[in-house]
Write a structure and sequence with these properties.
Order of helices and strands: EHEEEEEHHEHEHEEEH
Shape: globular
Number of helices: 6
Strand content: 15-25%
Structural class: alpha/beta
Radius of gyration: 14 Å
Helix content: 25-40%
Number of strands: 11
Length: 176
């Protein structure tokens, strides 16, 4: 499956879950998607929980979210920081309003909560934030991947094969 010309943006901050950042990134690159990273500071190297580095392509300020077809938010401890940036919340809200693909895994549900987009939506996340998701009005499911329209959510690293496949399939529909 090729998704050439489809653009994917992954937002990052220190202490991202290494696998939850890199696995979807490489999976979507393999399909032909154009994949970028953005963070608060484009000149800083961000480090995952297990020490894997990531240098963003752009700062949040440099991003025109309208140019992207999908937004990915990896888990780890980074989402607790990402949800404090107005730029990230604006990106999430734009993607939601335009019904463009939003992928979130593990603790990334915190970002969707802070963007106020989970009310009445079917989602999953790490069970550790199940109460947070439900208290924000989400309908939480303990499944490896949950799709509700344009939102694809997943629980944790062991679910990455199903998450990556689902993201690639959803992006594939954009090219038809």
């Amino acid at each position: 499956m090729s998704v050439t010309e489809v653009k994917v943006l992954t937002v990052i901050e220190d202490e991202f879950e290494d696998l939850e950042l890199w696995y979807p990134h490489y999976r979507l690159q393999e399909t032909g998607a154009i994949c970028h990273f953005a963070a608060k500071d484009a000149n800083k190297i961000y480090t995952g929980k297990y020490g894997v580095p990531c240098k963003p392509d752009y700062s949040f300020q440099q991003i025109n979210i309208e140019e992207y077809d999908a937004l990915l938010i990896p888990g780890g401890w980074a989402p607790d920081k990402l949800r404090r940036y107005d730029e990230v919340l604006s990106m999430v809200n734009y993607m939601d309003q335009q019904q463009k693909l939003i992928g979130q895994i593990c603790h990334a549900g915190w970002v969707l909560i802070s963007a106020n987009i989970v009310q009445g939506r079917k989602v999953t996340s790490t069970p550790g934030i199940k109460d947070d998701m439900e208290n924000a009005g989400a309908i939480w499911h303990n499944e490896e991947v949950v799709v509700d329209g344009h939102i694809v959510s997943s629980r944790r690293p062991p679910d990455l094969p199903a998450y990556g496949k689902t993201l690639a399939e959803k992006l594939g529909h954009l090219t038809k």
